Amino acid sequence: MQVSKGTHRIFLSLFFLISGFSFATWASRIPTIKSIYHFNDAQLGTLLLAMPISSVLGLPFSGWLVSKFESRIPLSMALIINSLSLILVGFSSSLFSLIIGISVFAFSLRIFNISVNTQSITLQKLFENKIIGSFHGLWSTGGILGISVTTFFIQHNLSIETHFLWVGALNILLTSVSFFFLLKNDRSEKGNKIIFGKPDPYITFLGLLVLFGAICEGGMFDWSGIYFHDVLKTRVFTYGYLIFMTCMASGRFFSDYLTVKIGLPKTYILGSALVFIGIAISVIFPFFWPAMIGFSMVGLGTSSVYPMTFSLAGQSKKYSPGLAISIVSTYSTLGMLLGPPLIGYLSHAFTLRWAFITFGLAGFLLNPLSRNFFNYKRKLDG
Predict the structure, then answer these.
(1) pLDDT of residue 191
(2) Which domains does the chain have, with CATH numbers?
């Protein structure tokens, strides 16, 4: 069956949408899980450690899988396993089963993320105009849909079991149908082995950029609902997460145009400033509307970091796109490892409001890091 590049783009876009929907379904229900198990912030932070630890374990598998198979195979299998683990989380009746469900969810999500980004970079080569930002925009759009559905279900007192069962079953159905329309024969024949020795500065700089982006983005995913619930005392606690994801999605759809218009270096600097100022507003003025404005700015600021950085990783002269993304994703996972649990411990010690300063500092560091990266890239390009 001959499939056009436009059809490939449509169905790959659907996978980004499904993934964002699934992740937001989990993240927006974290306050529900906290209430069910009566966790304090430190205990919740410890529970959330299961995700980045499992994600780290998934990294070597993902790098191996995308080097041995067409990316559509690990992509689809990982999303099906991810959906089954989401259902397990919803039906967990003990702390042990909850941890197992969360761990498998994160493990499979890491394999999916590297596979889907590898496919997107390969597909980008078939188009003259930039399209990668739109994929990440659709991931965030899926997140908005996920939060919206969660908000509706919370307002109508639908149980987390039924919620996660419906989402998991829908994702499995869509994955099974869409698999046949993804790009084939994209396995790279070279650059699939990690070269040990002196670290590659090109990859290291990109890794540090996604590390600090992940600290901010991952922390906002896990703690924005808690912030609105515990600090702002908002009954429908998904508002903060919803506005953050809405602005992130908007920024990602606009990022392809913005990077062409003002360039990658200025886009990183703009994003850094928006994150820092947005967090400052939210912390200094801990009220509903200032927090909504601040979370909006953070969403816009973080929106371009992942698509820009993964796109640059795919241009590595040393590694294949799949392996370069896998290595850079290691730093992203480290950011996820440090961010959410760190906020939990800082919140327990100093209150959640002041712990949020961590995200502002992470956003601020994107500025000097991006400047150093582009200085190095200019020297590398001659």
Answers:
(1) 44
(2) 5-180+200-377 (1.20.1250.20)
